[in-house]
Amino acid sequence: MRPQGSTGELASDWSLLERVVRKDEEALSALYDRYSGLVYSEAKRILRDTGAAEEILQDLFYQIWRTAERFDEARGSLGGWLLVAARNRAISRLRRKTGKTEELKENGVGLRVDLESRTAQNLLLEKVRGVMQELPEGQREAVELAYFEGMSHTEIAEKTGQPLGTIKTRIRSAMETLKRVLG
Amino acid sequence: MTNGGHISAEELTLLAVGAMPEEHCAALRAHAAECVDCGAKLAEARGQAALLALGVAQEKPAATIKAELFARIRAEREQEEMYRWPAKSGEEAAHAPARKSRRGWSLVPVAAALAIATTWEWKENQRMAGELASANHQIVKMTNERQRAEMLVDLLSSPDTVSVRLAAAPETQPSAGMVRYNAKRGMVVYTAELPALPADKIYQMWLVPATGAPISAGIFAPGPHGTRQLWTAEVPMNTEVKAFAVTIEPAGGVAQPTGPKVLVGAG
Known about the structure:
The complex is a heterodimer of chains A (183) and B (267). By secondary structure, chain A is mainly alpha-helical. Chain A is built from eight helices and no strands. Chain A has two domains: 10-115, Rna Polymerase Sigma Factor, Chain: A, CATH 1.10.1740; 117-183, Arc Repressor Mutant, subunit A (Orthogonal Bundle), CATH 1.10.10.10. In chain A, 67% of the residues lie in helices and 0% in strands. Chain A is globular and about 55 Å long. Chain B folds into three domains: 9-55, no CATH class; 57-82 and 108-157; 162-266, Sandwich (Immunoglobulin-like), CATH 2.60.40. The interface between A and B is large, with 70 and 54 residues.
């Protein structure tokens, strides 16, 4: 069953978070159902380890449960924060760094797209996959090595044998394409 | 920073995507924390970069993870209830007499000692509550692991589960695998001995149904030094399968197979 607001529409992340602050388990359950697939898939893509991805997923939602009151709607979207936090934790683990736990009140993530409904998520999944497939090989490789492998531009330049300036341009061009297509 | 003291567009993108070398990040983040304009631009760039995560193959986490999360939350709530600091009720507080007698002042050292002892006891209780919550978490985790193991044993011993050996596809390196598939439950369990892949590639398991397009049964990467691992995946129930195949795909996995087959087996 989808979480409903008082008027029957899909409950927003913000209204669910307000309920989580009041320790409403059903609201956390709704947020989990909404975002667990995205968070888990991202962590698993980075770590290629089911157990480690599950741990990150569970810890992030546990953090939401414990500190929901620190999330400030004005600082960005919960879906965006979850994706960024999952990425940072997975990369920290991948590179064996002691990652700082992301606080809900800091590191604002502004998402201009709707991630709250399943339909919107499916549409975006399709669009992003389409953009990634259409990107020139060099651009896709540079962006993937940075975002999913945690490599800096200098490390990517070394790995691919391309000049540093080329790597920076490729990353920027890829992100501009993504922005243009997603509006 | 090359943009008149502000973070340039290129730096914002590199920082958001995670490509900025660590040694440059601190200064840029510090500036973004102080500068409203750069902070807003960085938040937007982060949101844009986060969408890259939507390009990966989507997988559903096991149902036990959610159950474990809520068991952890409930165990903690129970502990908190047990060790809650006893608060004075509103009515009690309202009727408490405001006495200021000499006898009252003489009791101050006693009250202070009691307060110290009570605070120490409260702190001790908090510490014990923390330890108990952690122990409970471990128990829940172990229970879930046991349940998973039982589920696997049950699945592997079920008469409905079929076993299919996977052999190396023609013109590929020697490799092998084994699939156990239970159509009624929509579960696939598999192992594979395959060479390690470069970072931008991954293995993906496919069910080839009697009719229709192949169905992904997840991406996987063999452990270091040929460690044997068992992978499980949920697939649509009652799918009649004619073959299983493993292909090499881009690291995030794909919706439909695009890469070379390395393992195949008839269902």
